[in-house]
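ok so i was messing around last nite and threw this chain in just to see what happens. nothing serious, just curious
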Amino acid sequence: MKRLLSSLLLCAALIAPPALASGGGAAATGPYLALEPAIVVNLLGEGRVRFMQVKVEAMSRDPAVLSALQEHTGPVRHALITLLSAQTQDRMYDMQVREEVRLLALEELRTVLETHAGLKREALEAVLFTNFVIQ
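result:
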C-alpha cells in the first residue's frame, strides 16, 4: 500500500503543471503577473460608503517588465489605488467606464515602469481586471 501511494505521488508530481509543481505564485513563468494582494478602495459617492475590490494582472512577454513590477510594488500599488479611489460608485457600475479605467491603469503602470525602472512603455502590453467587486 505504501509503495502504491509513493508511486501515485511520483506520477502526480510528474504530470502536474509547472506552476503547481513549483508552488505557483510569482515564480510561475508566463506572460502574466498577478499584482497581489487585490486593490481595495473606498468609492466616492453619496449615501453609504461603498468599497471596491479589484484583482489586477499585468501582461508582458518581457520578463524584465514583470520583475520590475514586483520590484516596484510601492509605486505600482500607489498608482492603482490613486486611480481607482478617484472613481465614483455610479460610474464604476458601467462596463464601458470600467474598460476606460482599465486602459488608464495600463497607462499609469507604463509610466511607473518608465520612471522607476527605465523600461519602454510598450513593454507592458496589458492590464487586466480579473475580479471586480463593489459592495
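not much to say yet. Residues 1-26 form one domain.
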